[in-house]
Amino acid sequence: MPHGPGCSPLPLLLIASLTLLVATHRVLAAPSTLRELAQQRGFHIGAAVAIPFLADTDYRETLRHQFNICVAENAFKMESLQPYRHQFNFNDADQLAAFAQTNHLRLRGHTLVWHSQMPWWLSHGQWTRDEGLRIMEEHITTVMQHFKGKVYAWDVVNEAVSDQAPWGVRTDNFWGKTVGADYVEKAFEFARRADSQAVLYYNDYGAEGAGPKADAVFQLLKQLKAKNLVDGVGWQSHFESGWKADKGYVANAQRLAQLGLEISITELDFRFTLPSTPEKLATQAESYRSMLRFCLSQPNIKAMVLWGFTDKSSWIPHFFKGQGDALIFDQNYRPKPAYDALADVLLH
Ligand code: XIL
Asked: pTM to 2 decimals?
């Protein structure tokens, strides 16, 4: 029976399979996200989350597609979690924990003991050393037990080391004045006891590269490590655009590795003076590139977490007059040159 080419099932089948092949190829060839690229290298790349923004679809989608680790920008701080004495409010923090769990992002806890963003009842009270210790212990224990299995690492203590001589644990902040310089060690003891599985971090700024503050932090960590109280150190890394990793960063990372400590970049951003220009964005991209290259070159650096991800929501304009645009997505969630630089480093 004669039949024309139009009726034959063979060409139709061929066309159908070709179309499928092209479509599959398009999907496979689509540019990968930072998350996918980091995952391939066993690295964690992440961002701090402002809970109210989770209601915004673009924000949520970008966060879960681009990152495999996150942290709350404010929701895990003491003023948020224990607004009244013995009364804990986990609403916002739980929201992030659920988001992280659903989307398979690791979650960092920031931060248990800090002299800033403390609840009013605490900062405005008069306390003996013993009361201070009990308050600290109750807070650490309650919060860590609540998030057991959900938060993999905690910034147990934030910003305890002084910025000037005599370098060492501050005795001029709330905890130093109330408890004394051993408040850091006490906090780590309580944390170890509350969740023996959690990775315990000391987190600070200005101690990332070489310098007297980095040396003081190192000495503190050495003492804590000798008692098996600490596992890692967080380098906040709020830097000015133009920053480059130098030998001081490598040497510091290596001596911490020798001590048996892991490192995470915990609050990365590169700020510059507004308005933005293509040149400034290019310089910023090179700073991000330098940081990620450095991270990947040091086996004990486990994660690189940005302090936000979109310029729509960043602490910089509120804290550094005239500065901003410090992150890798613009106000409309469009990737900036800094994003491309990070993707490029992960690809090569
Ligand atoms: C900042 C938040 O980004 C702001 O929203 C808040 O008003 C103040 O704190 N070092 C830290 C972070 O450890 O907790 C700080 O976060 C930024 C500096």
From this structure: 0.92
